[in-house]
Amino acid sequence: MSRTKRGALMRPLRRGVCRYCGCTQNNPCFLAGISMPGVPVVPLPCSWRDKSQAVCTNPRCITAHRAVVSAHKATRQARLQIFKARRRRSR
Ligand SMILES: [Zn+2]
Ligand SMILES: [Zn+2]
Questions:
Q1: Which among 20, 46, 62, 90 has the fewest CB atoms less than 10 Å away?
Q2: Where are the domains of the chain?
Q3: Is-above-0.85 flag for pTM?
Q4: Which residues place a Cβ less than 5 A from the ion ligand 1?
Q5: Euclidean distance between the first and final Cα of the chain, in Å?
Q6: Digit-coded pLDDT (tens) for 2-19
Q7: 40 C-alpha to center of ligand 1: Å?
């Protein structure tokens, strides 16, 4: 594996770049605007979902983020269960 490739894999989360769609403040993705009768739908640029600026308000990114967060939680809980079980057994 080349050095640059490894660097790309271990790339830390960059502030200001959506980790799911890769959009930035200067290059936001556009979301469907709110449609109202008689008013043409204007696409809205996305904004940041939180202060860390790693997830934008694109519904697809929010859904992806939710899945990642719940997977993280499940993993943590599973690890905790294993840890507890081990402790119980060693006693
Ligand atoms: Zn995004
Ligand atoms: Zn976006």
A1: 90
A2: 3-90
A3: no
A4: 18, 20-21, 56, 58, 61
A5: 45
A6: 555 554 445 556 689 999
A7: 24
